[in-house]
Amino acid sequence: MTEKQFPFMPRAIPAIIAWMIVWILLGLAFSANAQSLKPLSSEVYLEKWKDEAVYQMAIHKIPASITLAQGILESGNGNSTLAAKSNNHFGIKCHGDWTGKTVKHDDDKRGECFRAYPDAAQSFEDHSVFLKKARYIQLFELEMTDYKGWAKGLKKCGYATNSKYAYLLIDLIERYDLTQYDEEGLKLIAEREAFATHSQQIDERQIALNPKKSVTLHGNRAMQISDNHIQYTLALAGDSYDDLARVLDMMPWQLYRYNEIDRIKDSPYQPGAGEVIYLQPKRNRGTEDWLQLKEGETLWEASQRSGVSVKSLIRKNRLSPKNPLPSGGKISLKWKVTETGQLPGWARTLFKASR
User: Does residue 303 sit within a domain?
Assistant: First the structure.
């Protein structure tokens, strides 16, 4: 066989090799994608959604075990088409009062209307609200620890058409020990109620003792109390920490430490006119859950504005060189946020209780 006999060969071989490489790469990509789409297990589903179920129990008094068992069963551990594409984990149909987004899906009939959610957490919330309709009101007469009664009650009230629905829920609850999350929910409910009572007592006490913010004078300096209950004054033009300490009968190191200024590096520190100068240590937490950052605001400036120490803000917001202060965003003043930047479920319940 010569090139003269088969003149196409020298040019065809590189083309064939190129196509082989393309198909190999496509095969690898498909294999990697298939692995990433591996169905979720019940254990993974529970780990992902247990906190949300406990939160829903604390707010709506629906057993977390029931919510989780229904989620596993209705969504196939979050793998169903409804869950994966529409974030609907509980198979809730549109019904006449639904005004949100919808999706068509085959169920008892072809092309039935189901609710679609922007995120799965909203599906959990809507599930709780859905069960508070008059149709299911008798369930709330049961103890929150009576998961068998809840499971049988859901079937009796017509939540599902499967004749074995109640037993399927009970089996899941017992197989995965889901009652442990009911215990967590009960603890959170107790903490929430205690927090609400305590907050009300504090509010009443503050109104009685501090009907208005007090302002006292020290020479020509106005001494005020911040919203976070820390004494402070405002800097005047030409002030320095060293000079102000003498005027206020304080030690210079106190002003540097209270305001988190490096005395060795920045002494003598001269604050700008109108800058807050704390005369007492800043707090470990604020009076509000969040602080909305101003454009270009530094962490130290946010600390001075909120009265929460820089160290506490770093810890609560998981800040680091790889996770810096969010520009123009908001930071948590009370609670340590989750890895996704949200308040933890138990903190959300306390926040709702205090409102």
Answer: yes
Q: Is the pLDDT of residue 347 over 90?
A: no
Phi-psi region of 326 (alpha: psi -120 to 50; beta: other; left: phi over 0): beta
Eight-state DSSP code of residue 2: -
If one counts every other C-beta atom within 10 angstroms of the C-beta of residue 250, the result is 14
Q: Does a structural domain hold residue 283?
A: yes
Domain containing residue 183? 42-86+120-189
Say yes or no: 250 and 327 in one domain.
yes
- Is pTM beyond 0.70? Reply is no
Q: What 3-state class would DSSP assign to 224?
A: strand
* Calpha distance 105→236 (Å, rounded): 68
Q: In sequence order, what DSSP letters do the residues of 80-104 get, joined into one string?
A: SHHHHHH--SS--B--TT--S-EEE
**Do residues 46 and 185 both lie within one domain?**
yes
SS3 state of residue 112: strand
Cβ atoms of 224 and 272 within 8 Å: the answer is no
pLDDT in tens, 250-273: 888 999 999 999 888 877 888 888
pLDDT at 143 over 50: yes
- Tell me if 341 is assigned to some domain: yes
pLDDT in tens, 193-240: 765 555 455 445 544 444 445 566 666 678 888 888 888 999 888 889
- Cβ neighbourhood burial of 22 (10 Å; 0-12, 13-18, 19+): exposed
CATH number at residue 77: 1.10.530.10
